[in-house]
Amino acid sequence: MTEYATVRYLVDDVQAAVDFYTVHLGFQLNTNVAPAFADVTRGPLRLLLSGPTSSGARATPADAAMPGRNRIHLTVDDLDAEIARLRGDGVAFRSDAVSGPGGRQVLLADPAGNLIEIFQPAARA
């Protein structure tokens, strides 16, 4: 059995989320019982995509129904190439690329508004 770190994102449209993560971000589909639920994986990350009828969404308090400021973090070797590829696919970004001591990053959002950080680590000396 593979060990995964698992994150649940609440989404309005499970199939749209599955398409977004598999087509644009390289996730593999594991389970799809849309419109309630699907799960996708990329490396050690298992992302649960819970639609409005899923038990995970139904257990969420009404005042926490909007996407939060948390985000998954996906590491790439070449941020500029990834930005160009995603823009070519028509993906909209939520920020410009920014640089910091640890590397460079840009934010985008899935169809439900959940944030994804695409990150290129700084070169090590």
UniProtKB/TrEMBL annotation:
Short name of one Pfam family: Glyoxalase
GO biological process: L-methylmalonyl-CoA metabolic process
Keywords associated with the record: Dioxygenase, Metal-binding, Oxidoreductase
Domain of life: Bacteria
Molecular function via GO: dioxygenase activity; metal ion binding; methylmalonyl-CoA epimerase activity
Residues of the VOC domain: 3-121
Designated name of the protein: Catechol 2,3-dioxygenase
Source organism of the structure: Asanoa hainanensis
